[in-house]
């Protein structure tokens, strides 16, 4: 533990002897370290050499630079952990009051009662330790905020961000996605990847929980599902294998809901497996809005050895598949009213026929309008896929 550094500023030479004699035990133990100056100018000069003075014990009436002027100079340093204890004659209450009004921590009167001064110094030390601990915690929090901001950037960087993602197939398909985390980092993710010339793998997922643990599990989940999916397994086998792998990686019973589909660019065939995720919608070219049937499959990452089942759907020319996480339908407004599926179906009906970018951003804009300034309680992720040909 570093000693408390005390600077005594007084033109009376005998005070140095009094202080070093009275506090000799603390000095020997390394608890206190005293420095001495005889006026304000000497004090400021000494402080240039000793950067970490904790307490200034200063007389008010001194030649060359008095204690009030020194106090003003100390205030200009803007160091809340540096405490000034002012000393003056008992009858000099006007200057003492001015010193206290100017930010002195406390005062002592001459002749100095050293027992009382010792208590005042201990009080100042307690304040100094509190301030230093607060400053350290603040520094740690700022560092954590910086780390989280970087983590958020990394998380966004690992998700596909270039749209359109498959420009060579612009005539056959349109695809857009977005993710807006509730915190610096989130647990939602979307993904898409080419399996072969005719097939695209599509993932929409939501990890349980929020914050850093969810973000880490999100990265693991995305990597495993993508790795298995790129091998060309059908969605049911991909989810079965991914589930077994994630069960081995799960900590604190974390899980992930997943909608995984293989889309045939040429035919519009959609082979999909829904692992406990929200049912996507299909915006049909005839203007209707259709929700895919609820899936009987379990969520992913809870229990190994489970067999998942696939379903099939067909996207006709002009049909759009809209996938989302529950941060959309479960968004709340300032009155704690849920956005709900009915409102979502209404806005999707209005967005039917538009580009995928207009669909994803239009749905997000409607959710934010409904929230009306209420804090976002969950990650919001939306992806839209349109079959053109």
- Helical/strand content category: alpha/beta
Mean pLDDT: 91
Strand arrangement in the largest pleated sheet: 2-1-3-4-5
General form: elongated
| Residues in β-strands, percent | 15-25%
Describe the structure.
- With 389 residues, the chain is α/β, with parallel strands linked by helices.
- It contains eleven helices and 15 strands.
- The strands form three sheets. Strands 2-1-3-4-5 form a five-stranded parallel beta sheet, with helices on both faces.
- The longest helix has 45 residues, at 114-158.
- The chain is elongated and about 100 Å long.
- The N and C termini lie far apart (74 Å).
- The model has no long low-confidence stretch (mean pLDDT 91).
Care to give the gist of this entry?
This protein is α/β, with parallel strands linked by helices and 389 residues long.
Features:
389 residues; alpha/beta; 40% helix; 24% strand; elongated
Secondary-structure blueprint of this entry?
Layout: E1 4-9, H1 14-22, H2 24-28, E2 32-37, H3 40-49, E3 55-59, H4 67-76, E4 83-89, H5 93-101, E5 106-110, H6 114-158, E6 173-180, E7 188-194, E8 199-207, H7 211-229, H8 235-249, E9 256-264, E10 269-275, E11 281-283, E12 289-291, E13 311-314, E14 320-324, H9 326-329, H10 340-351, H11 356-371, E15 380-387
Parallel strand pairs: 1-2, 1-3, 3-4, 4-5
Antiparallel strand pairs: 6-15, 7-8, 8-9, 9-10, 10-13, 11-12, 11-14, 14-15
Helix pairs in contact: 3-4, 7-8, 10-11
